[in-house]
Automatic annotation (TrEMBL):
InterPro entries: CT_C_D, Cyclophilin-like_dom_sf, PxpB. It comes from Micromonospora echinofusca. GO terms for molecular function: ATP binding; hydrolase activity. Residues 78-88 have a biased composition (Low complexity). The keyword Membrane does not apply. Pfam families: CT_C_D. Residues 1-200 form the Carboxyltransferase domain. Residues 66-88 are annotated as: Disordered. This is Sensor histidine kinase inhibitor, KipI family. Gene3D superfamilies: 3.30.1360.40, Cyclophilin-like. Keywords: ATP-binding, Hydrolase, Nucleotide-binding.
Length: 211
């Protein structure tokens, strides 16, 4: 783990991988809730955690260097919404994606086996990016990572549920994309007029249940 200053009031924590990112995200969230950390934003990514709006970066970096994050358990702290409280967000999915056979071949199972695995997997939002409201969901084992399409589709519809690398994701709006499509949902993931606008934030638990 390495801590670097970014600009005048931000710090970037370089992590060894997704597990360490989640451990630090949860630890920093806990510390901020207890008043031990002053930061406007805690922003995880694939291998980093950004702290923005830090009044005294040098002092904060020294404090963080002395902390030992706990591994992120299923109940690791994170954002909540009025609709779900501390519980998971249940996303109803119609599993009819055109790339299900491709995923099944890669996993060495049949299509119902893919659907069953996705339905049973407890996902968590690792970080957000690519488009407003697009959440990268972790929970599948590394050996089930799948490659992106060699040529992205020019248009993937809003609500498409897809896989790429070790992640699952749901397209919040129509856009180009190269992820493997496994299903679709009608749930709205991003509403600029809502508070917060994004339905899924880092740390949120997610279940992809059958519609």
């Amino acid at each position: 783990m390495r801590i670097r200053p970014v600009g005048a009031h931000a710090l970037l924590i370089d992590c060894a991988g997704a597990d360490q990112v989640e451990a630090w995200r949860a630890e920093l969230w806990r510390r901020r809730e207890r008043g031990e950390l002053s930061a406007v934003e805690i922003v995880p990514a694939a291998t980093t955690v950004l702290l923005d709006g830090v009044p005294d970066p040098a002092t904060t970096a020294a404090r963080i260097a002395a902390w030992q994050p706990r591994p992120g358990p299923p109940e690791a702290p994170g954002p909540t919404t009025a609709a779900t409280g501390d519980g998971p967000v249940y996303v109803p999915v119609t599993y009819d994606g055109e790339d299900l056979p491709r995923v099944a071949d890669h996993w060495g199972v049949d299509v119902p086996g893919v659907v069953d695995r996705l339905r049973r997997t407890p996902f968590r939002v690792a970080f957000c990016g690519f488009a407003p409201g697009f959440a990268y969901l972790t929970g599948l084992p590394a050996e089930l990572a799948v490659p992106r399409l060699p040529t992205p589709r020019p248009r993937v519809p809003a609500g498409a549920v897809a896989l790429a690398g070790p992640y699952a994701g749901i397209y919040p709006a129509a856009s180009p994309g190269g992820w493997l499509l496994v299903g679709r949902t009608g749930i709205e993931l991003f509403d600029v007029h809502a508070d917060p606008p994004a339905r899924l934030a880092p740390g949120t638990r997610v279940r992809l249940v059958a519609a």
